[in-house]
Write a structure and sequence with these properties.
single chain, alpha+beta, 8-stranded mixed sheet, 5-stranded antiparallel sheet, 11 helices, 17% helix, disordered N terminus
Length: 724
């Protein structure tokens, strides 16, 4: 009997793997144990076929949506390389894999980028005739490449200036500014807040380039010490701290035919934010969301593309907290006088149909659905698909909106996180999804028939290799008693409810974040799982102020960051303390950035809960943080002195209890090292011991192999203080 029991135990262990994750796998594990997926999948236009890279990454292949299962090669890497060498004989081209960034331009042409030793190219390739249609050359050292829609030219940045190169190789310097603090065409405008993803826009006629011109000469220089030379040097950045001088941004139009420039007449005050920048389809005007410095009043304005003059304000949005535009306008393909606008002004980010006179034609929201990502229009332009947030923020599903009727239809159903898209005529959905217990499923679903054909059902990637810990979702209620909160608990392997375990409480808690989602592993990181395997209960919860739950949920933190967040996280702490298997004397807390702020806040405001803490890149006083993010949530220090006093941790260092390790990147341009240095100095003055570790060559996040070192340090810190 004993022998049989031993054999059963061995069989069970071998079936799932006999070891835990190692410290290196906290960083490289997501790649090593990635679920099987369909790589770089796209619908082929005007067909029921979809393309993707094969398992070798050497071929672009296709399958039909009718479910016959036959995989055929569209083009091989070798054929593509031969065509590229024929087109670019002077370049050394050695493709390792088929380009994963390919996109279908039409049913017969793909485009992608090609980087060689000498240049960067935008390639269009005819898959039928196996030849390169065009190869538009940019500069290898250039950045922010912006291609005209007809690929006749490309704009790119060299330093802080815009260069323009045409298909025939002619190079033009659009801007030639040499003043330190003048930046042209950069996506790093307004510190990439307000949904800003680029700094240049071509009109649909491909003859005018609109671009940001950022003047930050009035913004204070901030020194970042560089340690890579024998005598350390200083790299100055422009860092606009809360309440101080802000950058001044304008929008300029460059006419490629005449070389003339026109600046939009946006006017005063000049420290506003320019968002949602969109060309009119006609190319005759430009729409700009002009947001005031206080970030509570948005005007959607129209300007002439001929002389830059102000034409009219289409509509305005105001709020007692903040207005936060995140998306450009999207004009209807079948009606250039109407556009879709996204806003959370009525509680949830949803769609509104406007015309160019500024008249609201129709609200297109559906229940409490949150629009996360827009898809494509239908061929007639009367429908559009989008990914929406459901299930109290946990799930992502695909929906289709009929713009004329306003009817919204849910196209995916299984609980989880779906990455799904419709084919051209809207008859099939190609759907990749996962949830807490499902690594990945790829399927094709017929819209009318409802028939589902499975393409991939990924096995558990840990099977036979690693013994993963058990993960569960937990639903609690916010401190105001009104809102469900979702947490995630990870149990040690071989968990025994009769035993007591130390805790690592991992949190973030800041705006636009969400740590707990219904996808594979519940959104848990590999360090979370590693710590559970080391014998810790690992707990995480998303509090009010985080993402994907609507406007009221997000704005509960206004003017006093950290307070409602801590109140909600206390509900998670109370939940843990109610469990007999939690050792309340051995609880630790860990967070980075806003999470570092939250971690330190707990060690000060609720200093009898956690015995040990690790705060990475922490905000210690919001007056040292930048304008665009900081003033949205806290207003200016001059306007909200009580809030800044309440949330500052530097002036409360004397309340610190427990063992606190602060980690910071020495070149951090986001949360400046001054935050942690000021706090350490305050601890010294207060007679409080604090541990401090600096990563000399890293910015806000510690990356690469050094991240392994960081995780090992954190794990050992908790072991030292929580496993005695």
């Amino acid at each position: 009997m004993k022998k049989l029991t031993l054999l059963l135990l061995l069989a069970s262990s071998m079936a799932y793997g006999q070891r835990n994750l190692n410290i290196e796998e906290t960083v490289f594990g997501p790649r090593t144990y990635a679920p099987t997926a369909l790589v770089s999948s796209n619908w082929i236009p005007n067909s029921n076929n979809f393309s993707y890279l094969d398992k070798s990454y050497q071929n672009l292949v296709q399958k039909s949506a009718n479910g016959n299962g036959t995989e055929t090669i569209i083009i091989s890497k070798d054929d593509l390389q031969s065509a590229l060498k024929a087109k670019l004989p002077t370049e050394q081209i050695n493709l390792q894999t088929f380009p994963s960034d390919y996109q279908w331009e039409d049913s017969n042409t793909i485009n992608f980028t090609l980087r060689t030793k000498l240049s960067l190219y935008h390639i269009a390739y005819d898959v039928k005739n196996k030849q390169v249609v065009h190869a538009l050359q940019s500069d290898q050292a250039g950045s922010n490449q912006e291609y005209a829609a007809n690929y006749s030219k490309v704009a790119f940045l060299i330093g802080n200036n815009i260069n323009l190169k045409t298909a025939d190789g002619k190079l033009t310097a659009v801007t030639t500014d040499t003043t330190d603090g003048i930046v042209n065409g950069s996506d790093n405008t307004h510190r990439q807040e307000f949904g800003i993803k680029k700094g240049m826009w071509w009109n649909s006629q491909n003859d005018k380039l609109l671009y940001y011109r950022k003047d930050e000469t009035m913004v204070s220089k901030y020194p970042l010490i560089q340690w890579d030379t024998r005598v350390a040097s200083v790299k100055d950045i422009r860092y606009p701290m809360a309440g101080m001088k802000n950058e001044e941004v304008t929008l300029v139009i460059y006419n490629t035919k005449t070389a003339e420039k026109v600046t939009l007449a946006i006017g005063e005050p000049r420290d506003h934010f320019l968002t949602a920048v969109t060309w009119d389809p006609s190319g005759q005007s430009i729409y700009v969301g002009v947001l005031n410095r206080e970030q509570n009043h948005l005007k959607l304005n129209q300007y002439s593309a001929q002389d830059g003059r102000f034409i009219k304000t289409l509509f305005e949005e105001t709020a007692s907290t903040w207005v936060e535009p995140q998306n450009d306008l999207l004009f209807l393909p079948n009606n250039p006088k109407q556009f879709l606008y996204q806003s959370d002004r009525e509680g949830f980010n949803q769609l509104y149909l406007y015309n160019t006179d500024g008249k609201l034609i129709k609200k297109l929201g559906h229940e409490n659905l949150i629009v996360q990502q827009l898809g494509e229009f239908s061929p007639k332009g009367d429908k559009i698909s989008y990914t929406g947030v459901t299930n109290d923020g946990l799930d992502r599903q695909l929906f289709e909106l009929d713009i004329k009727t306003g009817k919204t239809t849910q196209l995916t159903q299984v609980r989880g996180t779906h990455n799904a898209k419709l084919n051209s005529d809207g008859t099939y959905v190609l759907d990749q999804y996962s949830n807490l217990t499902t690594p990945n499923i790829v399927q094709v679903k017929g819209i009318k028939t409802g028939k589902v054909d499975q393409v991939i059902s990924s096995p558990n990637p840990f099977l036979g290799k690693v013994n993963p810990p058990k993960i569960e979702f937990v639903t609690l209620t916010s401190a105001d008693g009104a809102t469900p909160l979702t947490g995630r608990i990870i149990y040690p392997n071989d968990f025994d409810p009769a035993k007591k375990y130390p805790v690592m409480y991992y949190l973030y808690g800041g705006s636009h974040s969400q740590l707990v989602t219904n996808k594979w592993l519940g959104g848990a990181g590999y360090f979370d799982m590693y710590m559970a395997q080391q014998g810790y209960i690992v707990f995480t919860m998303d509090n009010r102020g985080t993402d994907a739950r609507g406007r009221a949920f997000a704005t509960a933190t206004h003017r006093q960051l950290g307070q409602a967040e801590m109140a909600d996280q206390m509900k998670g702490i109370e939940y843990l303390k109610s469990k007999s298997f939690v050792d309340q004397e051995k609880m630790g807390i860990f967070g980075w950035s806003f999470g570092g702020f939250m971690t330190t806040s707990f060690m000060i405001h609720h200093n009898d809960i956690f015995k040990a803490a690790v705060a990475g890149g922490p905000v210690m006083d919001w007056k040292y943080y930048e304008i665009m993010y900081g003033e949205r949530y806290m207003d200016m220090p001059q306007e909200n002195p009580e809030g800044y006093q309440l949330t500052s941790l530097i002036n409360k260092a004397d309340q610190l209890k427990g063992d606190l390790l602060i980690i910071h990147g020495a070149q951090d341009p986001v949360v400046l090292q001054q935050h942690s240095m000021e706090f350490v100095e305050a601890c010294i003055k207060a007679g409080k011991q604090v541990d401090y570790f600096l990563y000399p060559t890293h910015e806000h996040n510690v990356s690469g192999k050094d991240r392994i070192h960081m995780y090992e340090k954190i794990a050992k810190y908790f072991d030292i203080h929580l496993k005695k």
